[in-house]
């Protein structure tokens, strides 16, 4: 049996590379046939799986805590390790505050091919009283593409947010996570919408206008909700239907007490009369 086209298929796993520089996003058979017949698009996507590099800033989710280290998901093909000794002295969070599913901000310090990626939360500048790394217990986290993270690192959008958003803080990483903190829930929602839009829109003015429009709409919804709560609730009282009811007055019946008394007196009188008659008859005999 002959075939005009020789099909060569390879089974790829997440994190592996194809013949180009793309990284496989999910497992499946990667066909090397012609572009019309290939199934490459089903298994290769835009870079979302992070490839660790030394000195990269990353945000991870703790999946295991042991007495010696943390096992952290950093959106890579394998988890990373965060040793207990990699925290500054006296800054190791307690077990009840930093455990499974906690979020941590760290940097990559080792990416050997024969060992797991190693992270560290030690301060780069030891003169600071407070470290930038460690447990993140506030704020909001976005998961996005690696391209958006790279784009934000060289963008003026963050400086505009620092100017118009009160107490705005943001940490952009290289592994597809963005952490930011604001004073209000409305600004947090509006910034999230702008950041996702920034992946496809490069005009800063349009993005800032989108932020202001979103804030105005959210504030309007809050005002309407407050008015609705303050407005007294009117309850429509259903009035009873008046109908012409003919009231029939009962005729007053004479009290029965006098009639009974007279009847008893008559009976007693008859009995006494009969007794007296019987006595008289007996005496005549």
TrEMBL record:
UniProt entry tagged with the keyword Lipid metabolism: no
The keyword RNA-binding is annotated on this UniProt entry: yes
GO molecular function, a single term: RNA binding
One of the protein's GO biological processes: exonucleolytic trimming to generate mature 3'-end of 5.8S rRNA from tricistronic rRNA transcript (SSU-rRNA, 5.8S rRNA, LSU-rRNA)
Key words of the record: Exosome, RNA-binding
Source species, domain of life: Eukaryota
GO CC annotation terms, alphabetical: cytoplasmic exosome (RNase complex); nuclear exosome (RNase complex)
PANTHER family (UniProt xref): EXOSOME COMPLEX COMPONENT RRP40, PNAS-3 RELATED
Protein name: Uncharacterized protein
